[in-house]
Automatic annotation (TrEMBL):
SUPFAM superfamilies recorded: Immunoglobulin (SSF48726)
Main location as per UniProt: membrane
Organism: Gorilla gorilla gorilla
UniProt-listed GO biological process terms: adaptive immune response; immune response; innate immune response; T cell activation
Membrane-topology annotation of the record: Single-pass type I membrane protein
Transmembrane segments: 236-257
Pfam family, one: V-set
Protein's UniProt name: SLAM family member 9
A GO term from the CC aspect: external side of plasma membrane
Keywords: Adaptive immunity, Disulfide bond, Glycoprotein, Immunity, Immunoglobulin domain, Innate immunity, Membrane, Signal, Transmembrane, Transmembrane helix
Record's keyword annotation contains Signal: yes
Signal peptide interval: 1-18
Domain Ig-like, residue spans: 136-210
Domain of life: Eukaryota
Length: 289
């Protein structure tokens, strides 16, 4: 569990009539994804009998008392926030948290009390929870000047981005690439300049996403370019609504046809019965002998 014990902090504490040695095993950075799961790994020294393991985060989280051979461990979850979301993985009783929320971020601590050597080890974890990023959205602000030239400001943003976000811009033109740091990119264009396209990249510790390329020339040459280019999401939504409308019309047509058939069938039966009665009445009776 503690790979370099000579670098660790050892404290000798008095506990009643017993002496217990405390060993600090350092802190570990852990990143996880919102609404998914994470395990905080815990190692038990070999050939040691564990008295209990106390997990805590801000306050006591759970206590694990390993069972004797052939018997399960006794687990007491003491923090209602984690009830039903934590489990302890054999054989080291590492802490597994499911359905992570923002509130799960923070410091965690595992105190392992060893019965054999009368040593207690302390391991700390700094858990940071992040959301998977959606596609960046680009806002284009441009101002035209004389002779068709214009200045543009591109602003990159991600919905519900959270913390530890970084933004960068990649400009491409004539097989040359240029990088710009930050969410805002300012540039200019005039007729005769080589065409460039700009792509925003957004990152957090668990995601790396890019926007669609944005060309500079069309925005300056045609002020209505932005309004004439509906977004992909809007096009997909419009197509989906059109298909849904056609399906509704088709279903209503089939229903009307079925209702009409149901009303028509009794009339046809009644008409056939009346015809058969008329035919029987029209037959001449047999002559007397």
């Amino acid at each position: 569990m503690c790979a370099f014990p000579w670098l660790l902090l050892l404290l000798l504490l008095q506990e009643g009539s017993q002496r217990r040695l405390w060993r600090w095993c350092g802190s570990e950075e852990v990143v996880a994804i919102l609404q998914e799961s994470i395990s905080l790994p815990l190692e038990i020294p070999p050939n040691e009998e564990v008295e209990n393991i106390i997990w805590s985060s801000h306050k006591s989280l759970a206590t694990v008392v390993p069972g004797k051979e052939g018997h399960p461990a006794t687990i007491m979850v003491t923090n209602p926030h984690y009830q039903g979301r934590v489990s302890f993985l054999d054989p080291s009783y590492s802490l597994h948290i499911s359905n992570l929320s923002w509130e799960d971020s923070g410091l965690y601590q595992a105190q392992v009390n060893l019965r054999t050597s009368q040593i207690s080890t302390m391991q700390q974890y700094n858990l940071r929870v992040y959301r998977r990023l959606s596609e960046p959205q680009i806002t284009v602000n441009f101002e035209s000047s004389g002779e068709g030239a214009c200045s543009m400001s591109l602003v990159c943003s991600v919905e519900k981005a959270g913390m530890d976000m970084t933004y960068s811009w990649l400009s491409q033109g004539d097989s040359a690439y240029t990088f710009h740091e930050g969410p805002v990119l300012s540039t200019s264009w005039r007729p005769g300049d080589s065409a460039l396209s700009y792509t925003c990249r957004a990152n957090n510790p668990i995601s790396n996403v890019s926007s669609r390329p944005i060309p500079d020339g069309p925005f300056c040459a045609d002020p209505n370019y932005a309004s004439e280019k509906p977004s992909t999401a809007f096009c997909l939504l419009a197509k989906g609504l059109l298909v849904f409308l056609l399906l509704v019309i088709l279903a209503m047509g089939l229903w009307i046809i079925r209702v009409q058939k149901r009303h028509k069938m009794p009339r046809m039966k009644k008409l056939m019965i009346n015809r058969m009665k008329l035919r029987k009445e029209a037959k001449p009776g047999s002559s007397p002998a």
